Amino acid sequence: MPSAKATLKNAWPYQQDRMNLPVANLESALPFYETILGFGVLSRSETPHRSAVLERDGIQIGLSENGGDPQQDGCFFEVSDVEMMLAELKATGFDNVTPDFKQQQYGDVRWKVLFVVAPDELCYSFGERQN
Fold this sequence. Notes:
By secondary structure, the protein is of the alpha+beta class. The protein has a single domain, classed as 2,3-Dihydroxybiphenyl 1,2-Dioxygenase, domain 1, CATH 3.10.180. 16% of the residues lie in helices and 45% in strands. It is built from 2 helices and 9 strands. The chain has helices at 26-36, 82-91; strands at 8-13, 21-22, 40-45, 51-56, 59-64, 74-79, 97-106, 109-117, 123-130. It has a 5-stranded mixed beta sheet with strand order 1-6-9-8-7, covered by helices on one side. Residues 15-129 form the VOC domain. This is VOC domain-containing protein.
């Protein structure tokens, strides 16, 4: 891993709840979040579904075997440095990432963005605010 790391600053879910992101199998999903994305597991639960709360840089997300469709969910993460985030991902050997360093406009904010599809099929965007 690179010595310098991007910092997660915020997270917005694509659907309703970043603390209840659907995965088919929690145990097979967790290594990606720990090894590739740098999250740590804060807690686990068996009820009402097998689930885990993950944290990186004070930002929490939750994975849950809740029967939802992972292809329809995920999060947009605001990061301190999107190119540094890309370097982190590449340093782990992960290659299912699409950098799109063109400017993208959402509301009144311009973003420099990269997209990641996790092995569990959840989709993530990492964006850096542009001046």
